[in-house]
Design brief:
single chain, 327 residues, alpha+beta, Immunoglobulin-like, 4-stranded antiparallel sheet, 3 helices, 22% strand, rod-shaped, coiled coil, membrane, transmembrane
Length: 327
């Protein structure tokens, strides 16, 4: 009897194969899970980084936009101070130049597409400095405006007072001129000479030169007129002109030599002009001769003496027509 070695159990072998496959599948699944897990983790990390970057960019953009708004506000305020109605000079002009320089520096940073956080911090600090300088400049301008308004008001007050003083001065000057004119007129009138004790004598002039009095019109050669120029303490010393006007018995001027102005502005004919040398405050005796242009006629002659446009004395002389009684 022969024996054969029995073979393994087929059922057992089949089970072992399935176990190996399960193990392989398990390893494969685990590997896949790890792989997907890593992929998911990596994507998550990448998304987080991207999110952080986006956040940083958004934050940077937001900060830049905010700075831009602040800068625009500050620039508008600065521009309002340097408008056409304000002319900055001296120290104010220097401060304005500093503001313009700051604006230029800030604008350079904000115009950058990729401004760093440090640059934005600098821009923020410069905007704060810009606002401070603008506020300081605004305060000084307001102070100067206030002082200017006070000066303008004071100047207007001074102008008003000056106008009043000018008007008062004009009025005073007018009154003074009027007073001086009146004073001069009074002094002029007061300085007019006065003739007194006027004597008129008709004379015959002999061949020897001797003068003989007569009342005969036909025989008379001339009038000898004498008078006193009375004392006057206002009239200044010097040469004075006496105008003598002789009127014929028929009322016509006798021996007219010219005319002179009366105080009323009219002209008057005179028969003779006599120059005398008057001494202030003293009485001056005056004597002069007068001959008519033709022979005397009988009747009443009127002799008037004028000085300074005024009549200062008058006398009459009557001559006879002639005959046995005429001397």
């Amino acid at each position: 009897m022969s024996y054969t070695t029995p073979t393994e159990n087929p059922q057992k072998q089949s089970s072992s194969g399935r176990d190996n496959r399960k193990t392989f599948y398990g390893i494969l699944i685990a590997a896949l899970v790890l792989t997907w897990g890593y992929i998911i983790y990596d994507k998550s990390k990448t998304k987080e980084i991207i999110t952080q970057k986006d956040t940083q960019i958004t934050t940077a953009l937001t900060a830049k936009d905010s700075l831009q708004v602040l800068f625009n506000d500050a620039s508008a305020k600065a521009d309002s101070l340097t408008g056409s109605n304000v002319k900055l000079q001296g120290a104010l002009a220097e401060k304005n130049n500093e503001i313009l320089k700051l604006k230029s520096n800030i604008r350079s940073i904000l115009n950058k597409k990729n401004a760093t956080e440090e640059e934005l911090k600098q821009a923020k600090a410069m905007i704060a400095e810009l606002n401070a300088k603008i506020d300081s400049l605004f305060a000084e301008i307001q102070q100067l405006k206030g002082e200017n308004q006070q000066l303008t008001a004071a100047n207007q007050q001074l102008t008003t007072e000056k106008t009043q003083l000018t008007n008062q001065n004009t009025e005073l000057q007018s009154n003074l001129t009027k007073t001086q004119t009146e004073k001069a007129n009074i002094e002029d009138i007061a300085s007019t000479l006065h003739a007194s004790n006027i004597q008129v004598k008709a004379v015959i002039v002999k061949k020897s030169g001797k003068e003989v009095s007569t009342n005969n019109a036909k025989r008379a050669d001339m009038f000898v007129i004498t008078c006193n120029i009375d004392e006057n303490r206002i009239t200044p010393s010097g040469k004075k002109t006496l105008y003598v006007c002789v009127t014929n018995p028929d009322g016509t001027p006798s021996g007219t030599e010219g005319t002179f102005k009366l105080r009323d502005g009219s002209d008057k004919a005179y028969s003779n002009a006599v120059e005398v040398n008057y001494e202030q405050g003293k009485t001056l005796p005056v004597s002069f001769n007068w001959k008519p242009g033709s022979k005397f006629t009988g009747g009443n002659y009127k002799i008037e003496i004028y000085n300074n446009g005024f009549k200062i004395g008058e006398a009459q002389k009557t001559l006879n027509k002639g005959g046995f009684l005429g001397l």
